[in-house]
Amino acid sequence: MKIRIHELAAHELDEAIEWHELQSRDLGKHFRRIVREQVKTLARNPIWYLRKSDDIYKAFIPKFPYKNIVHRRRK
């Protein structure tokens, strides 16, 4: 499955990375790495995650109070 990040989600991610970096050096980088890894896993195996509806999956980001929500488009 191909993942496309919505521009509002990308903006929110950038803000979260910046905020975490201000809290502790390299924490923003760590957060970004974890989010990217999870997005890749979601793309490969969306059914491993919580299903909100027929085509929406939710994955909590480990060690951070955020979650990824993926809408799986039907062809």
Please summarize what this structure is.
This protein has 75 residues and is of the alpha+beta class. Helices cover 47% and strands 19% of the residues. It has a three-stranded antiparallel beta sheet, covered by helices on one side.
Please specify the SSE layout and strand pairing:
Elements: H1 7-23, H2 27-44, E1 50-53, E2 56-60, E3 67-71
Antiparallel strand pairs: 1-2, 2-3
Q: Mind explaining what this structure looks like?
A:
Helix 1 (7-23) packs antiparallel against helix 2 (27-44). The protein has one domain (7-71). The model has no long low-confidence stretch (mean pLDDT 83). 47% of the residues lie in helices and 19% in strands. Strands 1-2-3 form a three-stranded antiparallel β-sheet, with helices on one face. The protein is an alpha+beta fold and 75 residues long. The protein has helices at 7-23, 27-44, and strands spanning 50-53, 56-60, 67-71.
Strand order of the largest sheet: 1-2-3
Low-confidence parts: none
Number of helices: 2
Give the proportion of residues in helices. 40-55%
Hey, roughly how much beta strand do the residues contain? 15-25%
Give the ordered list of helices and strands.
HHEEE
Rg estimate, integer Å: 13 Å
Number of domains: 1
Q: Based on Cα principal axes, name the global outline.
A: elongated
Output mean pLDDT: 83
Give the biggest sheet: 3 strands, antiparallel
How far apart are the termini? 11 Å
Q: Which secondary-structure class do the elements indicate?
A: alpha+beta
> Number of DSSP strands?
3
Organism: Chlorobaculum tepidum (strain ATCC 49652 / DSM 12025 / NBRC 103806 / TLS) (Chlorobium tepidum)
Protein name: Plasmid stabilization system protein
